[in-house]
Write a structure and sequence with these properties.
The complex is a heterodimer. Chain A is α/β, with parallel strands linked by helices. Chain A is 44% helix and 14% strand. Chain A folds into three domains: 2-30 and 151-247, Glucose Oxidase, domain 1 (3-Layer(bba) Sandwich), CATH 3.50.30.10; 44-144, Orthogonal Bundle (Enzyme I, Chain A, domain 2); 251-562, TIM Barrel, CATH 3.20.20.60. In chain A, the strands form two sheets. A nine-stranded mixed β-sheet of chain A has the order 1-2-9-8-4-5-6-7-3. In chain A, helix 1 crosses helix 4. Chain A is elongated and about 90 Å long. Chain B has one domain (3-83): Histidine-containing Protein, Chain: A (2-Layer Sandwich), CATH 3.30.1340. The N and C termini of chain B lie far apart (32 Å). Classes of the chains: A alpha/beta, B alpha+beta. Chain A binds chain B through residues 75-76, 78-79, 82-83, 86-89, 114, 117-118, 121-122, 124-125, 128, and chain B through 15-17, 19-20, 23-24, 44, 46-50, 52-53, 55.
């Protein structure tokens, strides 16, 4: 939503990254829609002049690009420019504007005619049809007064503003020219956000209204607060620079996670195997909060043998020192990733089916041996290792399931009494009954925010169309996390978060405010989260959490958390 | 009406760069010029789209013709020479 005076409009979205940048806007052009076949209101002479001006501007633009590129590109673009100013094309356009069609429609129809001719003429010309369509789209855009389709062409650095970016667009992005990405659509898991994270380009996604910005407008993009400011004031620029410096300073902080008043919040790493361990150690992780074990099982025809599992687990455990913690999640099986040795049958909706711990309890326990072998292997590997090894089960809904898991873990000699056997909280059911679950033998709970969000928002994680709903900032999700956090504090048992939410520095503070005392994330996120925690007291985190949970939407919650 | 039939020397035919060079030169002529494949319908030689849609390959025979007028014969000669040169260098 756009707010503020005409001189300094702001747009709010979801930030990716921490460094603020300022630069001129370059709008991503969308292919213009087919111009309607309506009677032109202007005279045929005016429409013709408009069409010819559009074609001339496209030719000039192609030549300018060509001379900038040089070489064979220049030859290719010269040939395209000649098409834009082709006399036969001009005749077709003239005939149509004389017949009362609009400039854009006349261009569209004339190109369509050549498109059909070329399509029917062998492989070589058929391959040129895409060029023809591109020239047509440009000319129609010029005649309609809308931005040119495709990535903007600039020789100076710019802030790319788009509705959203498709993979084909982003493949052509020049990291040295694109200062920041700003999109009107998309959420934190959109293609643009993922790309921005991967490329290290600051971004603000889902900033509605940004496409109204004119090309060349100076904008300040501050992903740390998710704000894009047009015509920023000097004060706004300075404040953003200060925030960027604080983020840069984050890299120099080391050590365990602490709030500014000294409350310990364990900073742990999510890993999927021994390969991920070096990055976790380099980031100063205090251990592992989520050791996914699926890689051992996927692609196998039979369950991995006890000895093979012991070896793999031990390799990970031995990498961590005395006093650290490694939390192993038992196999998260499901119908969406079928394993021949854990038969589950076909399901119309695997996310709501027999998955996680259910896979070993269902069907009269016919798959239980697979879980039992895993627990025995974890126990064996943990025996002589330095770190504390904890074990947790995925997809637990209620106390009876948790107790069943504790029984099995105890039978495998795991330390249930010592509080090292726990569960994942991924459903509203387990979040709301965490008190009852933790009142039993379950030693700890770890909240998987990705699944918890999916089940709370009734939005399939894998479905892009509902991707915007997959936002752990939603107050409903925060309230459920708060319910689990409070239950943990009441029971005196640790509650942590492992999931995308823990990697968001601001949200991490809110999670601490909700009672969470360990955060497990991708190693690359640890430094920023450590710095964010170090800047706030637990009381401040609690106030942020209270404001966020009281909001109406995910967007409002983020905004409310920021307000001081 | 002066005209000449020649063999196209450029291997890619009248596509890409050779087509652009030819059409550009045709556009500089003071009289209308047409190009036709053997026995085909003549098209405007000053139009990139028209020349491309002839789909002329290297080694094919094409006929150039210019409308009567000052410089017509010179136009045909200049363009014919161009077609007989390999422009894809």
């Amino acid at each position: 939503m756009a707010e503020g005076s005409a001189s300094s409009t702001t747009y709010e979205g979801v930030g990716v990254g921490t460094s603020a940048v300022a630069g001129p806007v370059a709008l991503m052009g969308q292919a213009p829609p087919e111009p309607p076949d309506i009677q032109a209101t202007a005279s045929p002479g005016d429409e013709r002049a408009k069409a010819f001006a559009a074609l001339a501007s496209v030719a000039a633009d192609l030549r300018a690009r060509g001379s900038a590129a040089g070489g064979t590109t220049e030859d290719v673009l010269e040939a395209q420019a000649m098409i834009a100013e082709d006399p036969e094309l001009a005749d077709g356009v003239r005939a149509r504007t004389d017949a009362g069609k609009t400039a854009a429609r006349a261009i569209h129809e004339t190109f369509a005619e050549f498109h059909d001719t070329f399509s029917g003429l062998g492989d070589y010309l058929a391959a040129r049809v895409a060029d023809l369509d591109d020239i047509a789209a440009r000319a129609v855009a010029a005649a309609s007064g809308v931005p040119m389709p495709g990535l903007p062409r600039r020789s100076e650095p710019y802030v790319l503003v788009a509705a959203d970016l498709a993979p084909a667009d982003t493949a052509l992005l020049d990291r040295h020219l694109v200062l920041a990405l700003v999109t009107a659509e998309g959420g934190p898991t959109s293609h643009t956000a993922i790309l921005a994270r991967a490329m290290g380009i600051p971004a603000v996604v889902g900033a509605a209204g940004v496409r109204a910005l004119a090309d060349g407008t100076t904008v300040l993009v501050d992903p740390s607060i998710g704000i894009v400011t047009a015509h920023p004031s000097t004060e706004a620029m300075e404040a953003a620079v200060a925030r960027s410096c604080a983020a840069a300073a984050a890299d120099t902080l080391t050590g365990p996670g602490l709030t500014s008043d000294g409350t310990a919040v364990k900073l742990l790493a999510n890993i999927g195997g021994a390969d991920d361990v070096p990055a976790a150690l380099a980031a100063g992780a205090e251990g592992v909060g989520l050791f996914r074990t699926e890689f051992l099982y996927l692609g196998c025809d039979e369950a991995p043998a006890f000895e093979a599992q012991v070896k793999v687990y031990k390799e990970v455990f031995d990498a961590f020192p005395q006093g650290s913690r490694v939390v192993v999640r038992t196999l998260d099986a499901g119908a969406d990733k079928p394993l021949p040795f854990v038969p589950l049958g076909e399901e119309p909706n695997p996310a709501l089916g027999v998955r996680g711990l259910r896979a070993f309890r269902a069907f009269g326990g016919r798959n239980e041996a697979v879980l039992r072998t895993q627990l025995l292997a974890i126990h064996e590997a943990a025996g002589t290792s330095a770190p504390e090894v904890w074990v947790m089960a995925p997809m637990v809904n209620e106390a009876t399931e948790a107790e069943w898991f504790c029984d099995l873990a105890a039978a495998c000699d795991l330390d249930v009494a010592g509080g090292r056997v726990g569960i994942m909280v991924e459903t509203p059911a387990s979040a709301l009954t965490a008190g009852a679950i933790l009142a039993g033998r379950t030693g700890f709970a770890s909240i998987g925010t990705n699944d918890l969000t999916q089940y709370t928002m009734a939005a399939d994680r894998m479905l892009g169309a509902v991707g915007a709903l997959q936002d752990p900032w939603h107050p409903a999700v925060l309230k459920l996390i708060g319910a689990a956090g409070s239950a943990g504090q009441a029971a005196g048992k640790p509650v942590g978060v492992c999931g995308e939410a823990a990697a968001d520095p601001l949200l991490a503070c809110v999670l601490v405010g909700l009672g969470v005392r360990s955060l497990s994330m991708a190693p690359s996120a640890i430094a920023e989260v450590r710095a964010a925690l170090a800047a706030r007291t637990v009381e401040e985190c609690g106030a942020m959490a209270a404001r966020a949970t009281g909001a109406a939407t995910a967007r409002d919650a983020r905004k409310a958390a920021l307000r001081t | 009406m002066p005209q000449r039939t020649v063999t196209v020397a450029s291997k890619v035919g009248l596509h890409a760069r050779p087509a652009a060079v030819f059409v550009k030169k045709a556009g500089e002529q003071p009289v209308p010029v047409t190009l036709a494949k053997d026995g085909g319908k003549p098209v405007n030689a000053k139009s990139m789209l028209a020349v491309m849609s002839l789909d002329v390959r290297g080694g094919e025979r094409v006929t150039l013709a210019a409308a009567d007028g000052e410089g017509a014969a010179a136009a045909v000669d200049e363009l014919a020479d161009l077609l007989e040169t390999d422009l894809d260098g």
